[in-house]
Amino acid sequence: MQEEIYCQGCGVSIQTSDPDSLGYTPKSSLDRETVLCKRCFRLKHYNEIQDVSMTDDDYLKMVSTIRDTDALVVHVIDIFDVSGSLIKSLPRIVGNNPILLVGNKMDLLPKSTNHRKLKQWLRSSAKEAGYKVKDVALISSVKGHGMEELTELMEIYRYNKDVYIVGTTNVGKSTFINRLIKQSVGESDVITTSYFPGTTLGFIEIPLDGEASLIDTPGIVNKEQIAHYISDHDLKIVTPNKEIKPRIYQLNDQQTLYFGGLARLDFIKGNKTSFVCYFSNQLSIHRTKLEKADALYDNHLGELLSPPNEETLNHLPKLTKSTFRITGERTDIVFPGLGWVSVDGDITVEAHSPKGVHVSLRKSLL
Ligand code: GDP
């Protein structure tokens, strides 16, 4: 039987078969005196954190050790996909430790976004998901916006204790930590501290000062994320990479909007009103009559209605439909991971999204 080898950085069991999973190292590195997993290797030599993902059960087992510690938990979410990035099991994972919620990718929202309102909304969204947060910070880890304010908040809430960084995959956790590392150590090599078998397995510790550390945890996979339902190629198109320009459609009832071929919104009943669409600028929006919408989809999915394209068509789950009656205040119809449509007035709509990705309503964000 082959002897089990452990990473000398984080203690995780080394494997040589799956480069995207925890503990990977190329076979050729096994002869080295110090064996490091790819993640620790990159951190040591390039000062760079890389995300790895795990199954729910493994993740839970591992990160639940946080509740036995006395630390600050920094929970990074993607403000473009809040429902896909809140972690329902977080209270069980972190116990009584305080949570600082960090809304990342602020550069995607229009500059006119009201920060105070957005923070309040994030706080209440977290509450609905079952946890109370100490405070909320808004940042762009790509641009570096809001990092100073966040660093100050971390100092206030951590009281010299360790800081655990948690988040689902793709929220920008690695980009965020890499920025923190640059900020604190500059270009010098980061030395990961030694591991404690059975407790911090797979966690990466980055010393903050003489006593406390910043601890990166693997990204949890949230099945609600659109990334699990579409191809990488299509994901690139639907994920915005710069400020979203809202697109406005004046619609009469019995009209339909297609968002590529990935989602669809039917205006069933109500007076003429404007539908303000917040999606990646690269995602094409197509307007048609409701009576023609099915035929359009059947005949033109993968061409006129794209993404998906002809090759990625087979990846896409069937679209499923939910009906919403919207009354009173301005409301966002949210297609998780894709974007949202902001509407007003007394209307009935039907929203279609890939099976597994649940459309929801919220009080208008902007
Ligand atoms: P992780 O899986 O949570 O570690 O996420 P990554 O750091 O790998 O980032 C996932 C994707 O989000 C990458 O394409 C990043 O470039 C992008 N990203 C990360 N932070 C930001 C941000 O502040 N703004 C924008 N627009 N994109 C970001």
UniProtKB/TrEMBL annotation:
GO terms for molecular function: GTP binding. Residues 57-223 form the CP-type G domain. Gene3D superfamilies: P-loop containing nucleotide triphosphate hydrolases. InterPro entries: G_CP_dom, GTP-bd, GTP-bd_ribosome_bgen_YqeH, Mito_lipid_metab_GTPase, NOA1/YqeH-like_C, P-loop_NTPase. NCBIfam families: GTPase_YqeH. This is CP-type G domain-containing protein.
